[in-house]
Amino acid sequence: MKSNKKNALIFALPVAAALMAGCQFVPDYFKPSAPIPEAFPVTNENGAKAASDIGWREFFKNPELQEVIAAALANNRDLKTAALQIAEARAMYDIQEADKLPSINAISGVTRSRQLLASSTPTNRTVYQVGAAMTAFELDLYGRIKNLSAAALAQFFATEEAHHAVQILLVGEVAKAWLNERALSEQVQLATRTLKGREESYAIVKKRFDAGITNALELRQSESLVQSAHVSLLSLKRLQSQSVNALALLVGNNVKMPAATTTLSSSNITAEIGAGLPSELIAHRPDIRAAEQRLRALQANIAAARAAFFPRISLTAGLGLASTDMSNLFSGNANTWSFAPLISLPIFDGGRNKASLNLAQVRSEIAVTNYEKTIQIAFREVADALAARAMLSEEIAAQQAVQKSQSERLELAQARYKNGIANYLEVLDAERELFAVEQQLLQGRLLKLTNAIDLYRSLGGGLNEVSK
Hints:
Layout: H1 2-20, H2 56-59, H3 63-75, H4 77-98, E1 104-115, E2 123-139, H5 144-210, H6 216-251, H7 281-284, H8 286-307, E3 312-323, E4 335-344, H9 352-418, H10 424-458
Antiparallel strand pairs: 1-2, 2-3, 3-4
Helix pairs in contact: 3-5, 4-5, 5-6, 5-8, 5-10, 6-10, 8-9, 9-10
């Protein structure tokens, strides 16, 4: 009966320790205020849904682009690495969480010893032992272990948010790389048409030269224009091939590009989105949420560092069977138990605990600064994209008017040259100007689309496949 009471006492100790560990001091989380204005400088609201509520399949309306983005989300190595980092952070949290509970192990062993006392004969002793043991379980009276676990949990959440940020960035970069290839494809077509037109002009100049109507200078000017167009075509083809390779790297697999009929002027590439308020960025941007979780982790580390100044109580206990005779090990008289509480109070550590606390506080202040800077960067990205959106449509309309004027100018110059009213230099300048203006128009359309993607990404869009 007495033995049963001792056993009950031994098993009750870990339970009591676990209950005492709940009496801890956990600091209140301090969240800095957002250092940004209450509204964006340029809003230009159009009544559309918020970017975070629009899935990327709804925002990117082109079916070919949707297939490329889906392939990237399935195969991109950076995104896979970010997902594995989530699993790594989860495992680290599980390890830290396990320190809250006692660790009980089954033990079995044989101890051989020899004793030689004064005026006695040597004694050999063999002890056989089997049982269970709890080793150095710390009573978390001041929250050191709990705060370390909270820091690991916050770090896990930060890693998860970082994965979301990588996905949003990947969706935007894939879409921009796809559009860049489409723009280069259109430029290749433009250069091909320009080269064909200049070859036709050269043929006319050559006939006039052979007939003695024009001089060698005009012939060489026309020939130079043909060769210049040829060089531009080859350069654009090289850039297009490299853009396909860059897109394939983002996707993580070979990419099948759409037919040449898909142009930047198509209306089924991106959808309209609303900007909302700057305060909504904190809720919608995963990089801001990740910075906040890192701040939580470092603030928890401060509490853990403070707990190191207080006493630590650890428990070691064991219960089992022991005997000097193997055959009697499992008899009723072989019971054994042990209980060894240990209290340690830091007296002198060379300033280690104080330095650890100072380090945790400095890291927390750095995290606050990084958190505020992340918010400011997000605000600027949205503000820049909104400012560009307000002007790009007007710029493209103006560029289209310039293109129309240059096209008419070229037609008039060619007619004047054929009728002998003007020299070939007038045609040469008109062809150069038209080619440059058409390229600028393509770049303007590309810039408008990439700006729409930047706005969508900077507002936190691209995390969901379908709308909320």
